[in-house]
Amino acid sequence: MLALYDRKNFQKKRKETMAIEQAREALRRWGAEGRILELPASSATVEFAAKALCCEPAHIAKTLAFHAKEQVLLIVMAGDARVDNQKYKARFGAKAAMLPFDQTEQAVGHAPGGICPFGRKPGIPVYLDVSLRRFSTVYPACGSANSAIALTIPELERYAEPVDWVDVCKDW
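RESULT FIELD:
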């Protein structure tokens, strides 16, 4: 049983290493690859990331993956924001439906806990939610459950290459 567990752990770690390398390669275009923080603690949730980075949860730029009319899309939003179903439907013409946990890595290129707009699979559009605009610096993940990068909003906008800014969140 130990050998099976070790194999699964190895495969998981290998996928995370590949995902962070994809993010690193995407950020290299702007000379930002060396700014990725590989944390000793998990950053897989907003709360974990805020604790690991010593910041307020709102400053975590969480990236969520959704299905919308046969397409996968990513929305980057503030850590304290929640998707407003009515706003989402008005903007994307479909009910807000997050990708199932077990389908996310295959569809996006990053597993839940490390989803980011950098190094994603080609053809996946990214949208930035206006909930982020109130901060000068935010911390998106970089492909693994223990990585992040500190970015200004103009840097996030440049590096994520979003389709557009959207207003699809509430409670912030």
